[in-house]
Amino acid sequence: xxxxxxxxxxxxxxxxxxxxxxxxxxxxxxxxxxxxxxxxxxxxxxxxxxxxxxxxxxxxxxxxxxxxxxxxxxxxxxxxxxxxxxxxxxxxxxxxxxxxxxxxxxxxxxxxxxxxxxxxxxxxxxxxxxxxxxxxxxxxxxxxxxxxxxxxxxxxxxxxxxxxxxxxxxxxxxxxxxxxxxxxxxxxxxxxxxxxxxxxxxxxxxxxxxxxxxxxxxxxxxxxxxxxxxxxxxxxxxxxxxxxxxxxxxxxxxxxxxxxxxxxxxxxxxxxxxxxxxxxxxxxxxxxxxxxxxxxxxxxxxxxxxxxxxxxxxxxxxxxxxxxxxxxxxxxxxxxxxxxxxxxxxxxxxxxxxxxxxxxxxxxxxxxxxxxxxxxxxxxxxxxxxxxxxxxxxxxxxxxxxxxxxxxxxxxxxxxxxxxxxxxxxxxxxxxxxxxxxxxxxxxxxxxxxxxxxxxxxxxxxxxxxxxxxxxxxxxxxxxxxxxxxxxxxxxxxxxxxxxxxxxxxxxxxxxxxxxxxxxxxxxxxxxxxxxxxxxxxxxxxxxxxxxxxxxxxxx
Length: 556
Known about the structure:
mainly alpha
């Protein structure tokens, strides 16, 4: 490849990585050089309570998620029983359910006026709430329970895969040394799966810390709601950015603690031998195992889905209206645009990395090699940033760009163009691209790594270099990975709520924001059809990826 194309690819990669890192850099800059007007007042009044609630929410959700996930992952990985093959991927279906929907549905079921307490009063003859005690659902503990019901599949799936990779020889050796039963699980099985459990726990913690819909509906003040209230309620972008920086610090701390907790662990057993046949379950143990697993997935997914379907049937006329089609069109347009651009940027970035890894002369273009080695991991940081924080980080540079553009038009004595960047779909699409860049990069990278380097050499021999090689050789071979990446980014963009609430243009709603708005107004019944559509959309990647991943691990 000549020098011109080498420089072009280098600057293209720099621009893509800079775009992905723009929100984080903007938050750091705004927090450092801009004094928030309300931060001292918040710190002296409610900010400590926000921080305490956030930490309690993360801790409670993680503990409940571990309680839910670990027994189920051990049961489906160790024993064989009727329905075990279906159960191992059905357990991941709650990931398709937005947490705030589950919170609303269980509030409707368990509130004082709900059917559960109504049935108890009728059964025992109670006349008022003073005659009995029933745990309130709209509390911090209730929020932890709802989030754990939706997020436990992260821990379940990763732990399940880790258990499938464990060698049976280690269990035999432990039994020879007199370790069996519960001690075998405690000292051998789960300690070997601890890295996967730690990663799953970190994912649950990050998703919990960034959640806005559930804590807002349950009226639990957290750092996420503080960012939203400070920006929209007080109009103080500086304070909102400083609170966002605090959230970024907490996420960095969680990831650091996860790595530090397993810093001395070395795992060498993988790859020896796949696990032997599963042990059959009989009698009361079979009944207990199936009751726990199916009961958990029923409470987390099937009961809320059944309630949504019931409302969709009875409120079909209120849901099936022009607003549904309008919001569906908005969601489809921004999600498709974000998916296409995200996959294109990932493809260009990964192809740049491949070109620099295959250089024969290591001294040539060393800056490009450093960029390819360290820039790609940095480009995937967007998924670790909560949607609310990401929106703050994007709004800062986009608002500045709008001011510069209008100042330029004023200097040229031309009509002002308004909020071209921060007040249009550009901001929303950019947020989706950065938020889900890790998904597009991961899917495309997996497919690109399967293409042998010899094909690149043969392409150069035939005169295909740079962009021509990408279009004529790699692109046809990447169709499956590109389609997977498109599907993942599209479907996740359809469900994204936090960034959509903060960055949507005026008079612009997606299905997610429409459902959340009616949920907040206690009118979810009128948006039940939209909610069912969002859940069904979320089911597609969960089922396909879970089944393919577990099937691949089971076949090893």
